[in-house]
Amino acid sequence: MRVGLLEGFLSRRYLGFWEAYLRALGVEVVRAPKTRPALPFCRPVQELLGQLEALKAQGVDYLLLPDLQGGVESERGGGGCPWLLDLEATLLRYFPGLPPVLKVPAEASERVLGRAGEVGQILTQNPMLVGRALDRARSLLKPPSPLGNPQGSVGVAAQPYLLEDEAFREEVMEALRPLGLLPYFPDLPPERLREEGDRLLPMDLPTDRELLGMVHYLARLGRVKGLLLVVSYECPPIPGLLRKAARRLSKPHRLLTLGEDWKEALEGLKREMERPGGA
């Protein structure tokens, strides 16, 4: 039995447990390198589809996919972005011949155990083996360690799947470095950020609440003098959500698109941050 795993789209939150659990079941875990095929989608989706193409070529029996919204449904959430609303359904639409999907929660907690038991039964039909595998992997049902945060003066808000990508964080740091600036990435756990988001705008999807929570949290931090609101390349729905949040900001801010030239926008942001009373 071969199960394909994907890196990205919140994999940092859930994949540690599931990979260990699958191995404990005796299942062969298959990963694919990140590539970026020339497709008319945002960069994270391009990377996701590149991995899918490689996994399909390697011949996996199942594909492990995250439930990004924890079962919450919304017609207006995620700015209408289909990849956020229902990743599995959208992949099936754009990627014919997708292997059978095992959908799992996008976060690791004790609530995952029920679904883990179901997946184990599907893959092994052996309740005793499933029980032993759960015992071995259960210690990994905890949030991942926080990513490094340079404690700068420029707060960075982006969809959670972007913010947890270390390549994205490095890209932001490289863009700010010539101006002598450092980023400050939101360092609260996801549930705390969702609570922050509820104070700013009422939304139903967890990823929307988390994104808005980043804006609310960063805007009230004294060390943060300006904000970058970053959206994925060619992902038009999300900027509308951030524009609504930006209208409530008193600090200098810029809405930027991944893949575009940020130099002029960042220079303007720095000038505003340095004005007396600019933050």
From TrEMBL:
Domain DUF2229: 2-143
Protein name: DUF2229 domain-containing protein
Domain of life: Bacteria
Organism: Thermus oshimai JL-2
Pfam families documented for this protein: DUF2229
